[in-house]
Amino acid sequence: MIQPNPGQIIFTDRARCRDCYRCLRVCPVKAIRVRGGQAFVEERLCIACGRCVRECPQGAKNYRNDIERAIETVREGGAKCAVTLAPSFAGLWPDWGRKRLPSALRKMGFAYVAETAVGAYPVALSCKEWALAHPKKANFATACPVVVNYVESYRPDLVSRLIPYASPMIAHARSLKRRLGPEWKVVFIGPCLAKKYEAQKELVNRSVDVVLTFEELKSWMEREKIDLAHCEESLFDESPDLQARLFAMSGGLMKTASWGSEGFDVERIAVSGYEELKELFNDIEQRDRPIFVEPLFCSQGCLNGPGLPKKDAGSSITRRQALLEYTKESIPQGKRVELLPEDLQTEYRPHPIESEEIPEMKIREMLEKTGKGRPEDQLNCGACGYDSCRDKAIAVIRGLAEPEMCIPAMRRLAERRTDRIIETSPNGLVILDEHLSILSMNEAFRHFFMCSDAVLGKPISYLMDPEPFENLASGIADKVEATVSHKSYSLICHEILYALPEAKQYVGIFVDITRAQTSQKKLEEIKTQAVVQAKELLEHQTRMAEKIAQFLGESTAQGEDLVRKLLQIAGDKRVEESKTRKEG
Asked: Which CATH number does 425-512 carry?
């Protein structure tokens, strides 16, 4: 996995990213940059809500693993390392496991084991007091770091509504270091990824040294081969107000402060999930009214955080029931502690996301480029991850998105390319309906069979013998392939016919092989003529040879006779000469 920035919380595993845009669809602030079909988290835009981590079907989105940092922190702290455990832990282990978890944490090297709920009770009371002292405007509790991140970056106009008290994690960590000593190391373990970012913020003065998720805790325990079944039961080192453990649930702050009817009062409401928060912010923008809001970014609260184990976490209903049972059945454990005002107080500052204003002309040009120029073409389907085609066009201009991300546009382009390929194919293509009537045909088919669109709707028998198609329709054959001569058109075709059962249609592909067949016929004729001519030549040569032989025979006999006569004449002449010499 690639972690491009040591301080970045969420990142992309490139090997797993399969350009499905799921992360972009679920990201509430669109903090995703798509490049080359892969989606990367844009750190400056991210609020660390972890929805992309939870929702990515390929597991391509992950968060920074801090197990090694935690191990090193425990090693450095020696006997001076404390752990503060978020109350939602009760939803992950059965009753017997919850009682043994403190011992397991001590085996892992923690000298002081406490519940974060110790800090939740004073935070809840302080928020109540602040809201009662400032009743003329809407006030937001600040226990959820994702809500704080969102308001500071995307709704800076509402930062003044954030109650200036730290989250239970920060408040408790400050208290631990103040009481145990500044040299002590503090590790927080919970279900939230944004807590990693919160611990890094300058304003908290590094009161929390390392943040782990419950998923990381379980991995660490497996790595150390720590089995709860082999651990003894033990108590936490300090005890919270029991109601404070409900902080992990929506409405838990008001319940902890014994304030109202847990969301049923007009002046106080608890909301969870981004959709509810968005509605709330829009409502406040339209009609500002005095109200106290307990917001949690995760639907159903921290019991449904993205840092829970992906396996063996059970359902959110089961976790909720387990937490309620733990709160109801528990007895106070360890010592009771008090937090000081300096443990609680903090401040929040706006740091709005800077973005260049895009001219309307550029937006219109981009819409035109992606086939969205007309209002009726702007489907706003959200398949690309953006709420509207206009938002997506702006994202493309800003370099966060790619034009190819529009699925309907790419589908239309693909269809056009397919139509173009079919229309320009040198092979004839025809599609028939279930009654073997012509539905469509390409230009090559029109040329082959000397027809026009006037034959659309007419049976194929209007142009050719329908028997091959009838064999398909009757089920005699699933596919027909043959070479057919269409004499009426001076055409010879290699034909491939097949059925589309689901569409109840039949397709015919006609490959013109007339020239090839004609050339083959001519070649056969030439071969036949050559054989005949070769045979005639052979016969002629044989006759010539016989005649030559006859002539040669006659000539030889005549020559022999002539030689004999010449020899005879020569012999007679020599005899006469001999006689003459003797007589003389």
From this structure: 3.30.450.20
